[in-house]
Design goal:
Keywords: CBS domain. This is CBS domain-containing protein. Pfam families: CBS (PF00571). The relative contact order is 0.15. Strand 1, helix 4 and strand 2 form a beta-alpha-beta unit. The chain has one domain: CBS-domain (Roll). The chain starts with 9 loop residues before the first helix and ends with a helix. Helices cover 46% and strands 15% of the residues. Strands 1-2-3 form a three-stranded mixed sheet. It has a two-stranded antiparallel ribbon with strand order 4-5. About 3% of the residues have low confidence. With 173 residues, it is of the alpha+beta class.
């Protein structure tokens, strides 16, 4: 053993000990909001009028490749929401007679909305509890976008991929 060697003691171990995870890093103070998702996906909102037919609504849903439309009045105010699920239920009730019916006959009139500054986790909980997949985002100036359950899942998956990449970089160096 070289004469300069000194056996480690408690003090030297404490100095060298590092922690990759702390309460601060594990419990981030940052709350992800609806706006963060809208920034990534855009604020497009597709609307239809209450007096339009379900046939017209189905064409818009198909052409825009979306699952729900907000229903607005002549002033652009939100008066309902129409989803694929609403249409399918009506198809089952009135086979062969559904497409000529008006949107206002089957739209959901008690629409749950969220705001751009609302926490994503809160929105996800409300969507899950209410068993719906689309939520309009309402701001002071009107509709700011449409949030879907798919948007929330995609956002979280991207977040998890980023976290995994950071962990890999920590491990590999």
């Amino acid at each position: 053993m070289p004469s300069s060697y000194q056996a480690p003691n408690r003090k030297s171990e404490e100095k060298q000990r590092t922690m990759s995870q702390t309460t601060t890093t594990n419990v981030s103070g940052e709350t992800v909001t609806v706006q963060r998702v809208l920034d990534q996906k855009g604020g497009s909102v597709f609307a239809i009028r209450p007096q339009d037919t379900l046939g017209e609504a189905v064409k818009v849903l198909r052409d825009k490749r979306i699952g729900a439309l907000v229903v607005t009045d002549a002033n652009g105010s939100l008066v309902g929401i129409l989803s694929e699920r609403d249409i399918v239920r009506k198809l089952a009730d009135t086979p062969g007679q559904t497409l000529p019916k008006r949107v206002e006959e089957i739209m959901t009139t008690e629409v749950q909305t969220c705001t751009p500054d609302e926490a994503l986790v809160s929105v996800l909980k409300r969507m899950n509890d209410g068993k719906f997949r689309h939520m309009p985002v309402a701001s002071d100036v009107g509709l700011a976008g449409m949030l879907t359950i798919g948007d929330l899942v995609n956002y979280r998956l991207t977040e998890l991929e980023h976290e995994a990449l950071q962990l890999k970089q920590l491990i590999v160096g």
